[in-house]
Amino acid sequence: MIVEMRKRAPQAEIDDVVLKAKSLGFSVQLNLGTDKTVIAILGGNTGQISPDSFAVLPGVENVTRIMKPYKLASREFKARNTVVKVGDISIGGNKLVIMAGPCAVESQKQLEEAAKIVKAAGAVILRGGAFKPRSSPFSFQGLEQTGLEYLQEVKRKFGLPVVTEVVDPHQVALVARYADILQVGARNMQNFSLLTELGKIKHPVILKRGLASTVTEWLTAADYLLAGGNNNVILCERGIRTFEDSTRFSMDISSIPVIKRFSHLPVIVDPSHAAGHYSLVPAIARAAVAAGADGLLIEVHPNPKEALVDGLQSLTPSDFKRLMGEIKSIAGVLGREV
Ligand code: PEP
Ligand code: MN
Protein backbone atom coordinates (compact mmCIF):
# COMPACT_ATOMS: atom_id res chain seq x y z
CA MET A 1 0.00 0.00 0.00
CA ILE A 2 1.26 3.47 -0.88
CA VAL A 3 0.50 6.44 1.34
CA GLU A 4 1.13 9.80 -0.28
CA MET A 5 1.50 12.63 2.19
CA ARG A 6 0.41 16.18 1.42
CA LYS A 7 3.08 18.56 0.23
CA ARG A 8 5.26 19.69 3.09
CA ALA A 9 3.41 17.54 5.63
CA PRO A 10 5.08 18.02 9.02
CA GLN A 11 7.39 15.28 10.27
CA ALA A 12 5.01 14.43 13.13
CA GLU A 13 2.29 13.44 10.64
CA ILE A 14 4.72 11.28 8.68
CA ASP A 15 5.84 9.65 11.93
CA ASP A 16 2.22 8.87 12.84
CA VAL A 17 1.68 6.96 9.58
CA VAL A 18 4.93 5.03 10.06
CA LEU A 19 4.05 4.24 13.67
CA LYS A 20 0.61 2.99 12.76
CA ALA A 21 1.98 0.76 9.99
CA LYS A 22 4.59 -0.69 12.32
CA SER A 23 2.06 -1.26 15.08
CA LEU A 24 0.05 -3.34 12.59
CA GLY A 25 3.15 -5.45 11.96
CA PHE A 26 4.14 -3.97 8.58
CA SER A 27 7.46 -2.60 7.46
CA VAL A 28 7.81 0.76 5.74
CA GLN A 29 10.03 2.42 3.16
CA LEU A 30 10.05 6.16 2.66
CA ASN A 31 10.54 8.02 -0.57
CA LEU A 32 11.48 11.49 0.54
CA GLY A 33 10.65 13.65 -2.47
CA THR A 34 11.61 17.30 -2.62
CA ASP A 35 8.33 18.47 -1.13
CA LYS A 36 6.27 15.32 -0.77
CA THR A 37 6.88 12.10 1.15
CA VAL A 38 5.57 8.78 -0.11
CA ILE A 39 5.39 5.89 2.34
CA ALA A 40 5.27 2.27 1.14
CA ILE A 41 3.61 -0.03 3.64
CA LEU A 42 4.92 -3.51 3.05
CA GLY A 43 4.04 -6.93 4.29
CA GLY A 44 2.33 -10.12 3.29
CA ASN A 45 -1.18 -9.19 4.36
CA THR A 46 -1.56 -5.48 3.65
CA GLY A 47 -4.52 -6.63 1.55
CA GLN A 48 -6.43 -7.32 4.76
CA ILE A 49 -6.46 -3.75 6.01
CA SER A 50 -8.59 -0.97 4.64
CA PRO A 51 -6.82 1.93 2.92
CA ASP A 52 -9.18 4.18 4.91
CA SER A 53 -7.39 3.30 8.13
CA PHE A 54 -4.49 5.34 6.77
CA ALA A 55 -6.49 7.83 4.68
CA VAL A 56 -8.04 9.26 7.86
CA LEU A 57 -4.69 10.19 9.38
CA PRO A 58 -3.75 13.89 9.32
CA GLY A 59 -1.52 14.91 6.44
CA VAL A 60 -2.43 11.94 4.24
CA GLU A 61 -3.40 12.95 0.73
CA ASN A 62 -3.94 9.64 -0.99
CA VAL A 63 -3.76 5.90 -0.27
CA THR A 64 -3.50 3.36 -3.07
CA ARG A 65 -2.96 -0.33 -3.20
CA ILE A 66 -0.25 -1.48 -5.58
CA MET A 67 -1.74 -4.49 -7.29
CA LYS A 68 1.56 -5.53 -8.86
CA PRO A 69 3.94 -7.88 -7.03
CA TYR A 70 6.72 -5.28 -7.04
CA LYS A 71 6.31 -2.20 -4.90
CA LEU A 72 9.52 -0.22 -4.35
CA ALA A 73 10.60 -0.48 -7.99
CA SER A 74 7.25 0.89 -9.12
CA ARG A 75 6.40 4.35 -10.39
CA GLU A 76 3.57 4.43 -7.85
CA PHE A 77 6.17 4.50 -5.08
CA LYS A 78 8.54 6.86 -6.85
CA ALA A 79 7.32 8.91 -9.79
CA ARG A 80 10.64 10.54 -10.66
CA ASN A 81 13.40 8.68 -12.45
CA THR A 82 16.16 7.28 -10.26
CA VAL A 83 19.61 8.46 -11.22
CA VAL A 84 22.42 6.22 -9.98
CA LYS A 85 25.74 7.92 -9.37
CA VAL A 86 29.11 6.25 -9.93
CA GLY A 87 31.64 8.91 -8.98
CA ASP A 88 30.71 11.80 -11.25
CA ILE A 89 28.90 9.57 -13.77
CA SER A 90 25.09 9.57 -13.65
CA ILE A 91 23.17 6.53 -14.91
CA GLY A 92 19.56 7.32 -15.75
CA GLY A 93 20.06 10.99 -16.60
CA ASN A 94 20.14 12.64 -19.99
CA LYS A 95 23.58 11.32 -20.83
CA LEU A 96 23.90 7.74 -22.04
CA VAL A 97 26.47 5.69 -20.17
CA ILE A 98 28.53 3.27 -22.22
CA MET A 99 30.20 0.42 -20.35
CA ALA A 100 32.52 -1.77 -22.39
CA GLY A 101 35.31 -4.27 -22.10
CA PRO A 102 36.03 -7.95 -22.38
CA CYS A 103 33.69 -10.68 -21.22
CA ALA A 104 36.39 -12.01 -18.89
CA VAL A 105 39.53 -10.54 -17.41
CA GLU A 106 42.25 -12.72 -18.95
CA SER A 107 45.46 -10.91 -18.04
CA GLN A 108 46.52 -7.47 -16.92
CA LYS A 109 47.87 -6.76 -20.40
CA GLN A 110 44.58 -7.75 -22.08
CA LEU A 111 42.57 -5.62 -19.65
CA GLU A 112 44.85 -2.61 -20.09
CA GLU A 113 44.58 -2.83 -23.87
CA ALA A 114 40.81 -3.11 -23.61
CA ALA A 115 40.62 -0.13 -21.23
CA LYS A 116 42.71 2.00 -23.56
CA ILE A 117 40.54 1.12 -26.56
CA VAL A 118 37.14 1.60 -24.94
CA LYS A 119 38.15 4.81 -23.17
CA ALA A 120 39.49 6.33 -26.39
CA ALA A 121 36.19 5.51 -28.11
CA GLY A 122 34.10 7.16 -25.40
CA ALA A 123 33.14 4.43 -22.92
CA VAL A 124 33.16 5.69 -19.34
CA ILE A 125 33.01 2.40 -17.41
CA LEU A 126 35.13 -0.72 -17.95
CA ARG A 127 33.54 -4.16 -17.77
CA GLY A 128 35.35 -7.44 -17.14
CA GLY A 129 34.35 -10.67 -15.44
CA ALA A 130 36.61 -12.11 -12.75
CA PHE A 131 34.13 -14.77 -11.61
CA LYS A 132 32.69 -16.41 -14.68
CA PRO A 133 29.75 -18.73 -14.06
CA ARG A 134 29.83 -20.82 -17.22
CA SER A 135 27.24 -23.13 -18.67
CA SER A 136 29.83 -25.91 -18.64
CA PRO A 137 32.05 -26.73 -15.63
CA PHE A 138 34.86 -27.47 -18.10
CA SER A 139 34.97 -23.89 -19.46
CA PHE A 140 37.30 -21.16 -18.15
CA GLN A 141 35.82 -19.94 -14.86
CA GLY A 142 37.67 -16.63 -14.58
CA LEU A 143 40.76 -15.41 -12.72
CA GLU A 144 38.72 -14.79 -9.56
CA GLN A 145 40.55 -12.64 -7.00
CA THR A 146 43.52 -12.09 -9.31
CA GLY A 147 41.05 -10.76 -11.86
CA LEU A 148 39.68 -8.33 -9.28
CA GLU A 149 43.21 -7.12 -8.60
CA TYR A 150 43.81 -6.50 -12.30
CA LEU A 151 40.54 -4.58 -12.48
CA GLN A 152 41.62 -2.38 -9.59
CA GLU A 153 45.03 -1.77 -11.13
CA VAL A 154 43.62 -0.88 -14.55
CA LYS A 155 40.97 1.34 -12.97
CA ARG A 156 43.73 3.25 -11.19
CA LYS A 157 45.80 3.57 -14.33
CA PHE A 158 43.00 4.69 -16.66
CA GLY A 159 40.62 6.41 -14.24
CA LEU A 160 37.76 4.20 -15.43
CA PRO A 161 35.30 2.84 -12.87
CA VAL A 162 34.80 -0.91 -13.21
CA VAL A 163 31.84 -3.27 -13.25
CA THR A 164 32.22 -6.96 -12.54
CA GLU A 165 29.95 -9.86 -11.68
CA VAL A 166 29.42 -11.29 -8.22
CA VAL A 167 28.05 -14.82 -8.07
CA ASP A 168 28.22 -15.82 -4.43
CA PRO A 169 26.53 -14.07 -1.49
CA HIS A 170 29.63 -14.75 0.60
CA GLN A 171 31.78 -12.83 -1.87
CA VAL A 172 29.80 -9.60 -1.94
CA ALA A 173 32.16 -7.86 0.51
CA LEU A 174 35.22 -9.06 -1.43
CA VAL A 175 33.95 -7.91 -4.83
CA ALA A 176 32.72 -4.62 -3.35
CA ARG A 177 36.28 -3.85 -2.22
CA TYR A 178 37.42 -3.80 -5.87
CA ALA A 179 34.43 -2.93 -8.04
CA ASP A 180 32.48 0.30 -8.48
CA ILE A 181 29.41 -1.55 -9.78
CA LEU A 182 28.49 -5.13 -8.93
CA GLN A 183 26.73 -7.13 -11.62
CA VAL A 184 24.13 -9.82 -10.98
CA GLY A 185 24.16 -12.18 -13.94
CA ALA A 186 21.04 -13.31 -15.74
CA ARG A 187 21.26 -16.76 -14.18
CA ASN A 188 21.30 -15.22 -10.70
CA MET A 189 18.47 -12.72 -11.11
CA GLN A 190 16.38 -14.71 -8.64
CA ASN A 191 19.22 -15.76 -6.35
CA PHE A 192 17.49 -14.18 -3.40
CA SER A 193 20.29 -14.72 -0.89
CA LEU A 194 22.68 -12.93 -3.27
CA LEU A 195 20.17 -10.08 -3.73
CA THR A 196 19.64 -9.81 0.02
CA GLU A 197 23.38 -9.40 0.59
CA LEU A 198 23.60 -6.80 -2.18
CA GLY A 199 20.70 -4.93 -0.58
CA LYS A 200 22.86 -4.37 2.48
CA ILE A 201 25.58 -2.42 0.66
CA LYS A 202 25.39 0.91 -1.12
CA HIS A 203 27.39 0.04 -4.22
CA PRO A 204 25.44 0.35 -7.46
CA VAL A 205 24.16 -3.01 -8.69
CA ILE A 206 23.42 -3.98 -12.28
CA LEU A 207 20.58 -6.48 -12.17
CA LYS A 208 20.47 -8.40 -15.41
CA ARG A 209 17.17 -9.79 -16.60
CA GLY A 210 16.84 -13.54 -16.16
CA LEU A 211 16.85 -15.33 -19.46
CA ALA A 212 13.34 -16.67 -18.89
CA SER A 213 11.97 -13.96 -16.60
CA THR A 214 9.10 -11.60 -17.19
CA VAL A 215 9.50 -7.87 -16.59
CA THR A 216 7.31 -8.30 -13.49
CA GLU A 217 9.61 -10.99 -12.08
CA TRP A 218 12.62 -8.78 -12.86
CA LEU A 219 11.17 -5.76 -11.06
CA THR A 220 10.14 -7.95 -8.14
CA ALA A 221 13.74 -9.17 -7.89
CA ALA A 222 14.83 -5.50 -7.88
CA ASP A 223 12.58 -5.02 -4.84
CA TYR A 224 14.92 -7.32 -2.88
CA LEU A 225 17.74 -4.83 -3.37
CA LEU A 226 15.56 -1.80 -2.68
CA ALA A 227 13.93 -3.40 0.39
CA GLY A 228 17.37 -3.92 1.89
CA GLY A 229 18.05 -0.20 1.49
CA ASN A 230 20.24 -0.22 -1.61
CA ASN A 231 18.60 2.28 -3.95
CA ASN A 232 21.40 2.17 -6.50
CA VAL A 233 19.80 -0.33 -8.83
CA ILE A 234 20.40 -0.39 -12.59
CA LEU A 235 18.39 -2.85 -14.68
CA CYS A 236 20.00 -4.52 -17.68
CA GLU A 237 18.07 -6.15 -20.52
CA ARG A 238 20.24 -8.82 -22.13
CA GLY A 239 17.78 -10.84 -24.19
CA ILE A 240 15.43 -13.64 -23.28
CA ARG A 241 14.86 -17.21 -24.36
CA THR A 242 12.27 -17.61 -27.10
CA PHE A 243 11.66 -20.19 -29.82
CA GLU A 244 13.92 -18.15 -32.09
CA ASP A 245 17.40 -19.60 -32.32
CA SER A 246 19.09 -17.47 -34.94
CA THR A 247 20.41 -15.24 -32.16
CA ARG A 248 21.76 -16.44 -28.81
CA PHE A 249 18.80 -14.80 -27.05
CA SER A 250 15.96 -12.60 -28.33
CA MET A 251 16.51 -8.96 -27.49
CA ASP A 252 13.26 -7.75 -25.93
CA ILE A 253 13.37 -4.18 -27.16
CA SER A 254 9.90 -3.51 -25.79
CA SER A 255 11.04 -4.12 -22.23
CA ILE A 256 12.80 -0.74 -22.35
CA PRO A 257 9.66 1.40 -22.74
CA VAL A 258 7.77 -1.04 -20.50
CA ILE A 259 10.32 -0.52 -17.71
CA LYS A 260 10.21 3.24 -18.27
CA ARG A 261 6.45 3.16 -17.91
CA PHE A 262 6.21 1.00 -14.80
CA SER A 263 9.46 1.71 -12.95
CA HIS A 264 11.63 4.64 -11.95
CA LEU A 265 14.84 2.61 -12.24
CA PRO A 266 17.40 3.21 -15.01
CA VAL A 267 17.64 0.51 -17.68
CA ILE A 268 20.65 -0.31 -19.82
CA VAL A 269 21.01 -2.92 -22.55
CA ASP A 270 23.62 -5.62 -23.17
CA PRO A 271 23.42 -6.30 -26.92
CA SER A 272 26.36 -8.74 -26.86
CA HIS A 273 24.81 -11.64 -24.94
CA ALA A 274 21.56 -11.29 -26.86
CA ALA A 275 23.27 -11.28 -30.26
CA GLY A 276 25.80 -14.03 -29.70
CA HIS A 277 27.57 -12.87 -32.86
CA TYR A 278 29.60 -9.71 -33.37
CA SER A 279 27.94 -8.89 -36.68
CA LEU A 280 24.56 -8.47 -34.98
CA VAL A 281 25.70 -6.41 -31.99
CA PRO A 282 25.75 -2.92 -33.58
CA ALA A 283 22.17 -3.10 -34.90
CA ILE A 284 20.84 -4.29 -31.53
CA ALA A 285 22.82 -1.60 -29.72
CA ARG A 286 21.48 1.13 -32.03
CA ALA A 287 17.92 -0.14 -31.56
CA ALA A 288 18.34 -0.12 -27.78
CA VAL A 289 19.46 3.49 -27.77
CA ALA A 290 16.59 4.44 -30.09
CA ALA A 291 14.15 2.69 -27.73
CA GLY A 292 15.28 4.78 -24.77
CA ALA A 293 17.94 2.75 -22.97
CA ASP A 294 20.01 4.75 -20.47
CA GLY A 295 23.22 3.05 -21.51
CA LEU A 296 24.87 -0.02 -22.97
CA LEU A 297 27.04 -2.82 -21.63
CA ILE A 298 29.08 -4.13 -24.55
CA GLU A 299 31.75 -6.78 -24.95
CA VAL A 300 34.86 -5.44 -26.66
CA HIS A 301 38.10 -7.40 -26.91
CA PRO A 302 41.47 -6.14 -28.20
CA ASN A 303 41.67 -9.31 -30.26
CA PRO A 304 38.39 -11.28 -30.27
CA LYS A 305 39.98 -14.20 -32.12
CA GLU A 306 42.04 -14.90 -29.02
CA ALA A 307 39.37 -14.29 -26.38
CA LEU A 308 38.99 -17.01 -23.79
CA VAL A 309 35.27 -16.27 -23.45
CA ASP A 310 32.65 -14.91 -25.86
CA GLY A 311 35.07 -13.93 -28.62
CA LEU A 312 32.40 -14.55 -31.23
CA GLN A 313 30.17 -11.81 -29.85
CA SER A 314 32.94 -9.36 -28.91
CA LEU A 315 33.45 -6.25 -31.00
CA THR A 316 36.86 -5.41 -32.38
CA PRO A 317 38.30 -2.02 -31.43
CA SER A 318 37.41 -0.54 -34.83
CA ASP A 319 33.84 -1.91 -34.82
CA PHE A 320 33.33 -0.47 -31.35
CA LYS A 321 34.64 2.91 -32.43
CA ARG A 322 32.28 2.99 -35.40
CA LEU A 323 29.34 1.97 -33.21
CA MET A 324 30.10 4.76 -30.73
CA GLY A 325 29.81 7.29 -33.56
CA GLU A 326 26.46 5.85 -34.62
CA ILE A 327 25.16 5.85 -31.06
CA LYS A 328 26.11 9.52 -30.69
CA SER A 329 24.04 10.38 -33.77
CA ILE A 330 20.99 8.44 -32.57
CA ALA A 331 21.25 9.92 -29.07
CA GLY A 332 21.42 13.39 -30.63
CA VAL A 333 18.12 12.88 -32.46
CA LEU A 334 16.54 12.04 -29.10
CA GLY A 335 18.02 15.07 -27.38
CA ARG A 336 20.42 12.92 -25.38
CA GLU A 337 24.17 12.99 -25.09
CA VAL A 338 26.78 10.24 -24.92
C1 PEP B 1 28.25 -11.21 -18.68
O1 PEP B 1 27.83 -10.05 -18.75
O2 PEP B 1 29.44 -11.49 -18.68
C2 PEP B 1 27.28 -12.33 -18.59
C3 PEP B 1 27.66 -13.53 -18.23
O3 PEP B 1 26.03 -11.99 -18.94
P1 PEP B 1 24.62 -12.73 -18.62
O4 PEP B 1 24.56 -12.91 -17.13
O5 PEP B 1 23.63 -11.72 -19.14
O6 PEP B 1 24.60 -14.01 -19.39
MN1 MN C 1 30.14 -12.74 -21.98
Defining traits:
338 residues, alpha/beta, Alpha-Beta Plaits, TIM Barrel, eight-stranded parallel sheet, elongated, binds phosphoenolpyruvate, binds manganese (II) ion
CATH architecture of the largest domain: Alpha-Beta Barrel
- Report the CATH topology name of the largest domain: TIM Barrel
Total of DSSP H or I helical runs spanning 4+ residues: 11
Number of domains: 2
Query: Sheet bearing the most strands, described?
Result: 8 strands, parallel
Enumerate the spans where pLDDT stays under 50 for 5 or more consecutive residues: none
By secondary-structure content and strand pairing, the structural class works out as: alpha/beta
**Cα-atom radius of gyration:** 21 Å
Bound molecules: phosphoenolpyruvate, manganese (II) ion
Instruction: Note the gap between the termini.
Output: 38 Å
Strand order of the largest sheet: 13-12-11-10-9-8-7-14
Count all strands and give the number. Answer: 14
Which geometry do the CA atoms define? elongated
Query: How do the SSEs run, as a string of H and E?
Result: EHEEHEEEEHEHEHEHEHEHEHHEH
CATH class of the largest domain: Alpha Beta
What oligomeric state do these chains adopt? single chain
Average residue-wise pLDDT: 96
The CATH fourth-level homologous superfamily of the largest domain: Aldolase class I
Strand content: 15-25%
Relative helix content? 25-40%
Give me the secondary-structure topology.
Layout: E1 2-5, H1 11-23, E2 27-32, E3 37-42, H2 52-55, E4 60-64, E5 84-86, E6 89-91, E7 97-101, H3 108-121, E8 125-127, H4 145-158, E9 162-165, H5 172-178, E10 181-184, H6 192-199, E11 205-208, H7 215-228, E12 233-237, H8 255-262, E13 267-269, H9 271-275, H10 281-290, E14 295-299, H11 317-333
Parallel strand pairs: 7-8, 7-14, 8-9, 9-10, 10-11, 11-12, 12-13
Antiparallel strand pairs: 1-3, 1-4, 2-3, 5-6
Helix pairs in contact: 3-4, 3-11, 6-7, 10-11
The structure holds phosphoenolpyruvate and manganese (II) ion.
